């Protein structure tokens, strides 16, 4: 009687000696996908919950912005104000003052959120942000100098000049930090430059007319009060160009996270990508500074909120979601400033600092506990 043969076990392909092809397009996508740190289905659900929360806060903030104030209106009053003649006082309040303020908060917050996400991922430093790299200070110094010294620069060209100022400071800080290859050195250098530039801005503003001191003070705090459609038209072209550019660049940032050598071997021009990222971040920041003053910590905390809420580090997801979170954060901060201390107003930049400074402290503590520099 013959003994039955044992079926052969399924052969396992030997991949130990298989060469790795670095230049295939699928490699970049696979590597970028593995950087997310979570399953795609779970990430999609978390992104959905985050989008729902942002939508709820957006509706609530917009309702506060349109209904609360002097005069206090209901929904019917807002609709009637839009239908009223252009010279009607309620129409002026709703259409020319409250609505552009809401739109400006969303555009400015989205711009700052994307700028922060781009800088953090391109520099591989979770503490990178325009206000911590001196970019905001450089932009503010240019804007203040133009306003006080009466330089012949129009409203549409002002963000260009501010961008050049922010680029110069940002490049200098990044070069100094890169030489030491220490994230803490980068942040400390940026903070030192920001402090110095803030002093320069104050010194320049003291040269202005005494009657403008109140306006300059509000500008330094980062305020959206008394803004109109003119400011929206100033920031809109910059947001329309730099936001899509930043989102497009974010796909490359997933590969940059693997290291410069690996990214270069995969066909990514590392230097050109970082230059474009810095230009986009400075352009977004300069447009915000030109219309509202330096608003701190939105660019820093918006990407961290996205990463904590979605449990992903995918730069493309983080960048897009940071635009939504940043816009909602600034809108809520502005409405808190309008309603919490009514009839007085507290600048939106004050609320973002009150919320962002503790977040920065927590981030520093968590890095210290993990033994990171």
From TrEMBL:
Any one cellular-component term (Gene Ontology): plasma membrane
Stored CDD domains: TM_ABC_iron-siderophores_like (cd06550)
Gene3D superfamilies: ABC transporter involved in vitamin B12 uptake, BtuC
An example Gene Ontology biological process: siderophore-iron import into cell
Gene Ontology MF terms in the entry: transmembrane transporter activity
Keywords attached to this entry: Cell membrane, Membrane, Transmembrane, Transmembrane helix, Transport
Skewed-composition ranges (Polar residues): 1-29
Topology of this chain in the membrane: Multi-pass membrane protein
Localization: Cell membrane
Residue ranges of the TM segments: 47-68, 102-120, 132-151, 157-177, 184-209, 276-302, 314-333, 345-364
Region named Disordered: 1-40
PANTHER family given in the database record: FE(3+) DICITRATE TRANSPORT SYSTEM PERMEASE PROTEIN FECD-RELATED, FERRIC ENTEROBACTIN TRANSPORT SYSTEM PERMEASE PROTEIN
Protein family per UniProt: Belongs to the binding-protein-dependent transport system permease family. FecCD subfamily.
Name under which the protein is recorded: Iron ABC transporter permease
Lineage: Bacteria, Bacillati, Actinomycetota, Actinomycetes, Jiangellales
